[in-house]
Fold these 2 entries.
Entry 1:
Amino acid sequence: MDQTSDCFSVNMEREIAETKARLCLDCGKCTTACPVARYDVEFNPRLIVQRWLSSNGAKGQDPSIWQCLGCYGCVERCNYQVKFPEFIDALRYEAREQGHNAICSHGGSLQSLMRIMAGDIQQDRLGWVPDDIKVAEESDTAFFAGCASYFDVIFDDLGVQTSENNKGALRLLNRAGIEFALLPNERCCGHDLLQQGDRQGAFALAKANMGEFGTRGIKKIITGCPECLHMLRDVYPKITGERAFEIKHITEVLAPLVDSGDLKLGHLSKKVTYHDPCRLGRLAGLYDQARSMLKSVRGMEVVEMEMNRDKSLCCGATPWVNCGLVNRQVQQERLSQARATGAEMLVTACPKCQIHLNCAQKLERQSVPRVEIEDLVTLLVHSLEQEDSNDQS
Amino acid sequence: MTDSLTIVVFACNWDGLSCVEEAAHAHLSFPASVKVVRVSCLSRIHLGLILGAFQRGADGVMLLGCAPDDCHFDPGGSCVNREFTKARQTLDMLGLGSERVMLVNLVRGDGYGFVAKIQDFMTRFGTAPTLLVDAGTRARTPRVPSFWQLRTDG
Ligand code: SF4
Ligand code: SF4
């Protein structure tokens, strides 16, 4: 219980010490790398720290704290490993406790969804699983599907169906002979509540999920979404005090099998470019898995964007708050980089990147580059289908 | 029992609200736990508002508006229909049930129609556990901790 009350008290001195944010006062190096700072002159990591330290009492008033994308681009550049995005999370928590709030995108529907899920509910969320996929009744390995089925409903207008990613992941797991169960009452991982400063909400979701894992005897978890990976693997042990078990992203599970030849991929002639999701790349260090799998598809050419791997540009995502012009500009820049490679398709491994990069293209402006966005595992499954249909003909 | 159910009615400023007013003029009674929120048009309603009502403890949400062809702003009701469908799908997945949201179109000044719809809506929950009331104690126990209910950001 101590741990809980500890994580709910606002102790900015401790947060500053833990994130080492005071070092920013003498630096400012990351401003050149920060995608938000490029488009918003008010936004500057060094100045945010300075403004906070000199604000004496009028805390939580700095509106620029809601602009940070949490992309960890600054951490990558920082010589002192200042955890600036975590300092931002603390500022947001402090601001919320004082009654200041972010502007919720999508009418707050995602926030309400996450908070309802934290309550005592019994969901009916596995309707997306098709009959051809073999799911174990009981297994100590679970596939953590994330909020994809809810995203399908909310982002229907965008024509993005992120459940397709999960179907693809499960089909590949079936092919590889890896047994898994699905969790009928899985909750949102809580990433976006935590990132917008709602620690209590994230904690309640984490507790509910840990309870679900416990009653079902889950020892290993495979996630489809990089944000779920980050929460389950890195954050849950910290906020619940319970040691998490083995947690892997789907690319971490499949790539070794593809490399060893145990999982064969198909054929697809396409020129693609791979977009590193921030949580998968900079946070989990998984850069090669996706690339090596794409290269194992016969006929596929993989080209790199100007900013790639640890220097990759964020998709402009937010925890569903304060989405605005700056986010659009970041997205436009990323789409332009993809266009410049001459690739037919931008491939990513995160449902939220997929949603955000598609959303940016909803703007009917000529200046927004049009690029087809596809999910990694979905594309790998297509390569197999392509091959199967070639075999038949 | 149904009297203790909290129903949020989003009523459009036009025919929708006129039905609620007519019910009052005609001294028709309906439970005090029915909360009416006036909006300029049902096309103002989106999934966020509907889920926001449930997050804050509503047991059911009714969208009350003009007949689709009579709508002042969104003839055909394409906006509200889209959001209504999203809400039904989301509530089903959440396990709360799509019957907790209802779209009602009435002609101007149909107070009796409004009260009948409210009664009909409330009986849908006759056996379903209510979201707010703990059956054991009959005490109002929010299903989500109170700090969320204080928040106004959605
Ligand atoms: S986060 Fe690091 S690089 Fe950026 S201003 Fe602070 S100390 Fe400098
Ligand atoms: S996390 Fe990204 S958006 Fe936020 S300060 Fe760092 S580089 Fe800028």
Entry 2:
Amino acid sequence: MGLLTDLRSSISRATSSLFAGTEPKRIGIYGPPNAGKTTLANRIARDWTGDAVGPESHVPHETRRARRKENVEIKRNGKSVTIDVVDTPGVTTKVDYKEFLEHDIEEDDAVRRSREATEGVAEAMHWLREDVDGVIYVLDSTEDPFTQVNTMLVGIIESQDLPVLIFANKIDLEEASVQRVSNAFPQHETVPLSALEGDNMDEVYDKIAEHFG
Amino acid sequence: MPEVTTDDDAGDGIQIDMISAERMEGMRTMEKIRLILDGVHDDNIVILEDGLDPDEESKLIERTMSEINPDGFTGIEIETYPGSDGGDGGFLGRLMGSDDPSKLTVIGPANRIETLHKDETLISTLVTRR
Ligand SMILES: Nc1nc2c(ncn2[C@@H]2O[C@H](COP(=O)(O)OP(=O)(O)OP(=O)(O)O)[C@@H](O)[C@H]2O)c(=O)[nH]1
Ligand SMILES: [Mg+2]
């Protein structure tokens, strides 16, 4: 993000918080690598501010730094909620640089990427403990949700008493099972969507406004 | 659970460190994490009688990330039993009273341990020799 954009967003942030009297809630988008977090963050940002958050890719660990889009004002039923959207690197307990080599990435670049990925995950964990006010947990609904990382992450989020929504993404794909996702986390609300195709975004924004407003 | 350590003199065996709840009880978060990661760095499988709390798990992930390096350590594989799948703590959880947080936890080096199967009643893990 350029200096000007930064400046502009910090000015608009200052004025909006001056008038609203409250800071926007910081909503972290968490989930395993490749779930579609950035695709979702970009869609939210594009729908309400006109520009994107960061690059999307089928290569896992594309996002290696938490990226923020500030002051996203979502209008719902005559009311509006303003949130800061934080797109985070996919959380994992392991990173092997050799896996990048399978995506036609050179060795040097793979080593650098894996270092950035590990730093990014550490940073995302830190953010989760200190700097977010709510969490959107994104899952690829074509995949098994009963993984240790998902169980741990949701447990960590719950222990912080953060409001959380589970997003069952990629429902445009035939193998998607929203039921499997909601069965895995029955204590939370599950919202089905396709961040890529833009399916069910009305409900997505309703739920965001309801839970984080 | 007694504390058991099977040491391998042959060098190609697999060492399992079983750490009792009692041993972990008085420890600080970082001491626990060090104990676990030191074991994993030595290519051991670490089994905790009483797992970590969410804050400790979060710090374990953070610490693991900072120790990953391209010349060897690729991180950890971790499984807990009973998992929190289904929210009622599973069979063992119900047996012990569902608010009992104790959960058996298996942790190993990511490049040597692979979970083959996991459900409410069983974790099946494949450990490969170097
Ligand atoms: N079919 C389908 N593909 C999707 C959807 N959302 C994301 N994808 C694809 O999934 C891949 C990963 O998307 P990203 O948004 O980069 O995933 P991420 O969760 O940010 O991944 P990391 O940053 O690596 O953790 C890309 O190829 C996306 O095009 C969806 O709703 N449907
Ligand atoms: Mg991303």
